[in-house]
Write a structure and sequence with these properties.
Number of strands: 11
Shape: globular
Radius of gyration: 19 Å
Strand content: 15-25%
Helix content: 25-40%
CATH topology of the largest domain: Spore Coat Polysaccharide Biosynthesis Protein SpsA, Chain A
CATH class of the largest domain: Alpha Beta
Structural class: alpha/beta
Oligomer: single chain
């Protein structure tokens, strides 16, 4: 049995265009001791993803489950399968990613050589897919944490620079990251690794924070480079850039992100110090005012939060 299992998810036509590049970059890896699991979250069983995989990569079983079950539930199924198969490591990776040839080799070397590490992130750079251009703009060097349970992609929107690789991270982003499975077993909640209340977005930060609370370590492997054509793209820091960033995202993405941030606040409120709680309260006031003035569709997410309040797994 391979000690590494790689899992990815496809979503209708939105991922199909990337598969030739993504799967080819996996096939050309210098490290080949891995197996691949895949779930198709497309609405129809017969779709462009399954057709491409069947015709070009028939060694991969792209498992269609009948509906879009979301990021968290799909990956939980694959992680459980990887554990059943006896793997040591699991890699989460989006199909809108292209990997340099030595990414797996470098990531698994770092992770396997340090028992204190439970996850690693590659350096993720921006991929302008439509222009067929790989850039030197950082997409993420991993998930960083700020006071008030706010999570950021380290270095996002900045020119590639070694200094971002050395910044502290609490885990990898859901676009691409490798985990030690024994650590995931220790932080699961109700047999879930990623929180399935979070259909999509911020579930990677939630998992990273649970690992952080257990004092598990994470690191960016600067030499391992991948390129990501991000759907929900950030344009950097600062208020004007944040506003520009929000306008570039669909209402659905903003709604998922808003709801899942609320779930995180509820889950980890008791673990926050006084200063962090004040930051959360101020953020909530600002978010409410902003929603009333500019994005009233977000108010529906508060209703959803109330309906699922008893299902939220508060951290103990």
């Amino acid at each position: 049995m391979s000690k590494l299992i790689i899992g990815f998810i496809t979503y209708g036509e939105s991922t199909a265009k990337y598969l030739p590049y993504f799967l080819d970059s996996l096939k050309k890896q210098t490290f080949q001791d891995f197996e691949t699991l895949a779930i198709d979250n497309s609405e129809e069983k017969e779709n462009v993803n399954t057709k491409f995989v069947q015709e070009n990569h028939n060694d991969i079983n792209l498992n269609w489950l009948g509906e879009n079950i979301g990021f968290a539930q799909a990956y939980n199924k694959m992680i459980k399968k990887a554990i059943d198969l006896g793997a040591e490591y699991f890699m989460v990776v989006n199909p809108d990613v292209a990997l340099e040839r030595d990414v797996l080799e470098k990531m698994i070397k770092v992770l396997s050589s340090d028992d204190k590490l439970t996850s690693v992130s590659p350096k993720i750079l921006k991929w302008e897919f439509n222009n067929n251009r790989k850039t030197n703009i950082i997409d993420s060097c991993g998930i960083g944490m700020e006071s008030g349970l706010r999570f950021v992609d380290v270095g996002q929107g900045e020119q590639d620079n070694e200094k971002f690789c050395n910044k502290k991270i609490i885990g990898p982003t859901g676009a691409c990251g490798m985990y030690r499975l024994s650590a995931l077993q220790k932080v699961k909640q109700d047999d879930q690794y990623f929180d399935e209340l979070m259909f999509m977005y911020k579930e990677d930060a939630d998992l990273a924070y649970r690992l952080f609370l257990k004092e598990f370590k994470s690191k960016c492997v600067c030499e391992a480079k991948v390129y990501h054509d991000r759907t929900a793209e950030s344009s950097g820091q600062g208020k004007l850039k944040v506003i520009k960033d929000r306008k570039s995202k669909s209402e659905k993405v903003r709604a998922w992100s808003f709801l899942n941030q609320q779930i995180i606040f509820v889950k980890y409120w008791k673990q926050q110090n006084f200063y962090s709680k004040i930051k959360i309260i101020l953020f909530e006031i600002q978010a409410l005012i902003f929603s009333l003035l500019f994005e009233r569709f977000l108010l529906k997410e508060i209703t959803k939060l109330w309906k699922i309040r008893k299902k939220i797994k508060k951290y103990k």
